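Checklist before submission:
- one chain only
- standard amino acids only
- sequence pasted in full

Submission:
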Amino acid sequence: MRAVRPPDYRAVIGALLSRSAVRELTGDAAGAFADAKKGLRLARAAAEPLSEADSLALLSELFSATGRYGDVLQASSDALERYQAAGNLRGCSTCINNIGAALDAQGQHAGALQQYQRSLEIDIRIGDRSGQAYSLNNIGNIHTGRGDHRIALGLYTESLQIRKEIGDIAGQARCLNNIGACHDCLGDPDEAMRCYQESYRIKRRIGDRRGQALSLNNIGLLHRLRGEQGEALRCYRESLAIREAVGDRRGQAESHNNIGVLLARRNAPGEALEHYRRSLGLYELIGDPRGQAHVRQNSADALLALGEVTAARAELDRARALAETHGCGETLRRIARTETELARRPDGRAAADR
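Returned file contents:
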């Protein structure tokens, strides 16, 4: 009689997690969550701690993509505990990196930087080139947020070189997007557009819909700065549609804000305000205080243009409180400019758009 081979639970769970990752990349958030949660249930039932850690780590990334940062911290911490017990340093580094990303998104940038540097140290120690590229990229993001664009550009370029060496096509696209943003901030919009478009072409080729939305958003921003408002609005709306389809709440918040800015420049402050309110609601939902401060500042400008001075003052006060608490230097500068404009024109009707 033929012996019955026991099921290879790790292989089954691994297949589920692989399918989950593919579904997330192509915009099937519900399917991605379903597979990851099924993998977690199976790992727990089979008493497979490493598979349980793998499932939790993937879930933390899915939570991050949908702006559920409290869940990211919990899932990453649970996975980290299991990886540490197993001596799996690569898994530890991934979880530490994910914890950093969640802290960064919630405005805790100093804590995020500590986690990213800790992750990078592990990556270097174990020779994980892919992990090094991720950590360098994320440290670059911190410097971008601080306005240190040349430092960020060096980190992104180093990350891109590693990704080329190891054949990480998706990672190359992400790096190109970040490099483009640095060139834009450093006053080279043509090079920025070249990087954004190359990033977009790669993302379309590999089916990265979330990434396509980000590239379209950035291409739209450059069109707006060139005065090509119709093309900018097309890119923003296409980006928003993708972000809604894949459940990217942070991306939706960004898109609504950008559409609002463009409508304000077209002298449509009422329509702009509606998009700002949608953006603010999403930033509040995912717990991003820096995003809230930025959008409240834009809302104040729209309210001034509508002549609603009292409401504009209240919105500026809320924006300032958030910006001061979370170190939003650029937003504070914009608030100061709006307050100067408000003092000069108390009816608020001629306040400049930003």
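Reviewer check: The domain at 130-228 is CATH 1.25.40.10 (Serine Threonine Protein Phosphatase 5, Tetratricopeptide repeat).
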